[in-house]
């Protein structure tokens, strides 16, 4: 499956500090599952946990707390990002999606197999760089 064969470094950042990083992460699969999560009828009401054939369950989690949305991982069980508003989270996911699509395109692969996140929401202000990906 193509989703599993496209790997890159994935990093979670908090206020300019890297909290967690994985060198060979299935970023295309994460982008795919995040897009499906945003298309869900319960968008903005249910938490996200990456359900991957290649990554450990809970490796990426996005949960809603009383203060906003937080990103966490089983790799750093005591850490959760600072809470952000829904529109900031969506802006970060859009930025991640764009980075993954650019990297996939640079590899000569059409990223059309990933649902298009940016068509689902109106543009909003940029976030604080919670999730970043680089394709090698």
Please tell me about this protein's structure.
The protein is α+β, with helices and mostly antiparallel strands and 136 residues long. 28% of the residues lie in helices and 24% in strands. The protein has three helices and six strands; from the N terminus they run αββαβββαβ. It has helices at residues 2-5, 27-39, 86-106, and strands at residues 8-14, 17-25, 48-49, 61-65, 68-72, 131-134. The strands form two sheets. Strands 2-1-6 form a three-stranded antiparallel β-sheet. It has a three-stranded antiparallel β-sheet with strand order 3-4-5, with no helix packed on it. Strand 1 and strand 2 form a beta hairpin. Helix 2 (27-39) packs across helix 3 (86-106). The radius of gyration is 14 Å and the shape is globular. The two termini are 19 Å apart. Mean pLDDT is 79; it is low at 120-129 and 132-136.
Mean pLDDT: 79
Radius of gyration: 14 Å
- Summarize the helix and strand pattern as letters: HEEHEEEHE
Largest sheet: 3 strands, antiparallel
Low-confidence stretches: 120-129, 132-136
What is the general shape? globular
Tell me the distance between the termini: 19 Å
Helix content: 25-40%
Please state roughly what percent of the residues sit in beta strands, choosing from under 5%, 5-15%, 15-25%, 25-35%, 35-45% or over 45%: 15-25%
Number of DSSP strands? 6
What structural category arises from helix and sheet content? alpha+beta
What's the tally of helices? 3
Strand line-up across the major sheet = 2-1-6
